Amino acid sequence: MRRNMDRVAAGSALVLILGGCSGMTLPTPRGHYREPLAAPPEAALQVAEARAAEDRIAELQRRIDRLERRLAAVSKPGVAELGAAELAATAGGGAHPGPGPGAELAQAVEAPAADAGAVSDEELGRALSRTLVEQGGLVLPPFAAEITPELSYAYRGTSGLQIFEMAGVPGIGFIDTRQDTLTASVTGRLGLPYSSQVEVSVPFAYDRVRVDRQGFSQTRSDRGIGDLQVSLSKQLLRERRVVPDLLGSVTWRLPTGSAALGASEPSLGAGYHALRAGLTAVKSQDPLVYFGTLAYTWNLSDTVAGVDIDPGDMVNVRLGTVLAVSPQTSLRAVLDTEFRRETEIAGMRAPGSDDVAASLELGVAAVLTDRMLLDVTAGFGVTEAAPDFRFGIALPYRF
Known about the structure:
399 residues; alpha+beta; Lipocalin; twelve-stranded antiparallel barrel
């Protein structure tokens, strides 16, 4: 009898051991229930925190990969510094956890979208700035320098009453002229403190004129330095909300090039001093930038080819827009209009000298390297007083 009871007790113990291993609730000989074995609460919390940390690390790694690809694709100055700062901010965010795993994970997920938008806007502004500097809508940073070699060709054909010179005597008659002008110029810009900039331009020109007058045809040409120009620009207002950027400029043109009277003779310069004052407004609306210039030019009286001439003053209106096709490329369209007052020659008014010269300019600019820009321009005359066609290539290089 006792041996049978020992066997029953051993079997019960074996059943209890197997039941505990399988997590089943089994009745004990005394009728009590045993709860299934479960992991401690501290272990479950550690597992959840470990999984959240792994998710955060994976997301931060994806952000770093995106930043590295962005920095590798962009070669303009200043963008590398921007990406490094953004990368440091990303690393700092991972090193200082927030209130809890949920808040950290939400911040890590939302931040990349905001950062991507900020970098894109910055790149866009850098691409447009090179074109705006060329168009007079932006000044260089203090002590930044830029030199721009440019080669341009212009064709102009006119028929009608024009001023001409014959045997040293000026006159007015019906003339048919064809003028070809090839100009190579060098322009230097230097940024100054207080949002200012100084600019000097030196042109070298070749001018050829063919004249048909009363069955007589003649071709003449001249080459040499043109009129030197010195400009000073300053930014007056910064863009905010509805207020645009506003820049003021003053330009002095010196008569350093040889000048002739009328359009029937080749001329490398105007032959008189000119002072020009203008205001330029710039308003951005991504990806477009609109700009407009209103300027007045005082043409000072002088002696040209031995004749006293009092050229009329001019009002210039220039309206244009620049489109950022990509961070490295921009397109632009500009309408340039000059309203010229009547000119007096030897105290007499020259009929037909008060006219309007309007031209449409189309251009494309592309960033070639970190410092060099390629700018191509094609202009078309809208009125008879403007050149019929103009084509130019410029290579601004920034130091």
